[in-house]
Design goal:
Order of helices and strands: EEHHHEHEEHEHEEEE
Radius of gyration: 17 Å
Oligomer: single chain
Number of strands: 10
Largest sheet: 4 strands, antiparallel
Helix content: 25-40%
Distance between the termini: 23 Å
Structural class: alpha+beta
Strand order of the largest sheet: 1-2-4-10
Number of helices: 6
Strand content: 25-35%
Length: 193
């Protein structure tokens, strides 16, 4: 959700939205002290890191100009249910029962959503980067009761086809400082009450 701030000039949108990051219990303490640093705490296999770099090399100029890359982002989820279901990488699967969920405050204008389902898809980088939108755009659609979509050009068609996000992945460029991270209590997680 996006919060509002009231200032002497009237009501303005605050640049804070909450997203959710999953890590191991051991890594969570480090994140609360040092912040979320891209790839510092990951145990992703080398193949995943190589794939991220190959996708980054094929970013459209418009994405590169935003400063967004897979290699320099921290990954998160738009809601806690998705974080519980998908985690932030397959490497976390071996830590079942030892996971920590972090609520992270981000700027929805400089944090992005892409469709993780398209990562590794046959059309790979073009489709993946084509699904990238600012988190604010994604949240605005949700707040209107709309299933979030993105436009995609197919083949030589000049028309955009509307696509639903199958697996929305939040990319937070350059990480997050510790003051914007909090460890979620078990009582905040669905199905633990």
């Amino acid at each position: 959700s996006i919060f509002l701030i009231i200032c002497k000039y009237g009501i303005m949108e605050c640049i804070v939205a909450e997203v959710f990051h999953v890590t191991t219990v051991d890594n969570a303490e480090q994140c609360l002290v040092e912040g979320l640093v891209p790839y510092k705490a990951t145990q992703a296999p080398p193949e995943t890191l190589e794939k991220n770099h190959s996708y980054d090399k094929l970013r459209p100029e418009s994405v590169a100009m935003l400063g967004v890359s897979r290699a320099n982002s921290v990954y998160a989820h738009v809601d806690v249910q998705s974080a519980i279901k998908h985690h932030n990488g397959s490497w976390l699967s071996k830590f079942a029962g030892q996971l920590a969920y972090l609520a992270v405050d981000v700027d929805p204008l400089t944090t992005y959503v892409a469709d993780m389902y398209l990562f590794g898809n046959t059309n790979g980088p073009r489709q993946y980067w084509g699904s990238l939108v600012p988190l604010k755009n994604y949240l605005d659609q949700l707040s209107q009761g709309i299933n979030p979509t993105f436009g995609e050009q197919r083949g030589s068609s000049k028309h955009l086809h509307t696509c639903l996000y199958w697996w929305p992945e939040v990319l937070i460029p350059d990480g997050v400082e510790p003051a914007r991270i909090r460890l979620m209590a078990a009582s905040e997680l669905p199905g633990t009450n």
